[in-house]
């Protein structure tokens, strides 16, 4: 099956600033992907490159086996909702659906009207008078009604309250189950993503730190806590992700394909949020001293 997204040495620079650096990544088709990382990590840049809104400085990117935005057919296969969930303030909800029908050859008008009805949006209401949550739902409706094979969502729920976030994500997952699509969903709200995603990409400092299925991520990362001397040597086959503590007591996060059992240390398997935070902390940490256990990952 064709990958949903493939990047090879993908780099985007704006003058002297590097927004994305040497990104090599493959996202399998049919996944709901959590794209996570701090502000400025390159998440929006990667999604805009995938949507064909900007071009790479160097490297390559393929979306559904082709160059982004290379043809009307390729554009029709990809849906994109930008971070501010853009809508036209002066157009009504019904106007937006009509615009979507005229511009998209795969447009599913019945799906769009059904979602608007389920969301209790007034078709006569202008988008500028809708709440933030309602505008986000309208933007998502327009993207879903394209019937895309790949849906790119950049922080679609960032400004929403918890109930509105839940409703938006539930609507998204209902569509994925009913119609099938690959989804890449960027968000800071890792706890929300863990409920709906089955693949994780961690992007920090414009570099990919981790890309794997969620089961693999949660099944191969452990937190080890104990005496610093007992943690000078990691378990066989374990890769150090991040280390914190003092000369006497230390906590380390490791990645290991083999189960980790501690004789004199406490071992705890990690969920997605803790794994993501560990990689973000590693990227934010200063370079380790030569005698530091963190040198194991250099």
From TrEMBL:
<keyword id="KW-0547">Nucleotide-binding</keyword>
<dbReference type="InterPro" id="IPR027417">
    <property type="entry name" value="P-loop_NTPase"/>
</dbReference>
<keyword id="KW-0067">ATP-binding</keyword>
<dbReference type="InterPro" id="IPR003439">
    <property type="entry name" value="ABC_transporter-like_ATP-bd"/>
</dbReference>
<dbReference type="GO" id="GO:0016887">
    <property type="term" value="F:ATP hydrolysis activity"/>
</dbReference>
<feature type="domain" description="ABC transporter">
    <location>
        <begin position="5"/>
        <end position="230"/>
    </location>
</feature>
<keyword id="KW-0813">Transport</keyword>
<dbReference type="InterPro" id="IPR003593">
    <property type="entry name" value="AAA+_ATPase"/>
</dbReference>
<dbReference type="InterPro" id="IPR051782">
    <property type="entry name" value="ABC_Transporter_VariousFunc"/>
</dbReference>
<dbReference type="GO" id="GO:0005524">
    <property type="term" value="F:ATP binding"/>
</dbReference>
<dbReference type="Pfam" id="PF00005">
    <property type="entry name" value="ABC_tran"/>
</dbReference>
<protein>
    <submittedName>
        <fullName>ABC-2 type transport system ATP-binding protein</fullName>
    </submittedName>
</protein>
């Amino acid at each position: 099956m064709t990958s949903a997204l493939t990047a090879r040495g993908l780099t985007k620079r704006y003058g002297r600033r590097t927004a994305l650096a040497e990104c090599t990544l493959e996202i399998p088709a049919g996944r709901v992907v959590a794209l996570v990382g701090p502000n400025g990590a390159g998440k929006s840049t990667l999604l805009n490159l995938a949507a064909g809104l900007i071009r790479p400085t160097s490297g390559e990117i393929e979306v559904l086996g082709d160059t982004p935005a290379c043809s009307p057919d390729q554009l029709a296969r990809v849906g994109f909702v930008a971070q501010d969930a853009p809508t036209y303030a002066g157009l009504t909800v019904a106007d937006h659906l009509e615009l979507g029908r005229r511009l998209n050859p795969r447009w599913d008008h019945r799906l769009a009207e059904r979602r608007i009805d389920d969301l209790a949006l007034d078709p006569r209401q202008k988008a500028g008078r809708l709440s933030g949550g309602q505008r986000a739902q309208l933007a998502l409706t327009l993207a879903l009604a394209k019937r895309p094979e790949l849906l790119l969502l950049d922080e679609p729920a960032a400004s929403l309250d918890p109930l509105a976030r839940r409703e938006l994500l539930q609507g998204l997952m209902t569509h994925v189950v009913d119609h099938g699509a690959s989804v890449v969903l960027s968000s800071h709200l890792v706890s929300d993503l863990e409920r709906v995603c089955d693949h994780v990409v961690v992007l920090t400092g414009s570099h990919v730190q981790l890309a794997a299925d969620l089961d693999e991520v949660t099944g191969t990362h452990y937190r080890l806590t104990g005496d610093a001397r007992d943690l000078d040597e990691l378990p066989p086959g374990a890769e150090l992700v991040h280390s914190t503590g003092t000369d006497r007591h230390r906590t380390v996060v490791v990645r290991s394909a083999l189960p980790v059992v501690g004789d004199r240390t406490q071992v705890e398997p990690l969920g997605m949020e803790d794994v993501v935070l560990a990689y973000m902390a590693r990227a934010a940490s200063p370079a380790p001293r030569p005698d530091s256990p963190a040198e194991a990952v250099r």
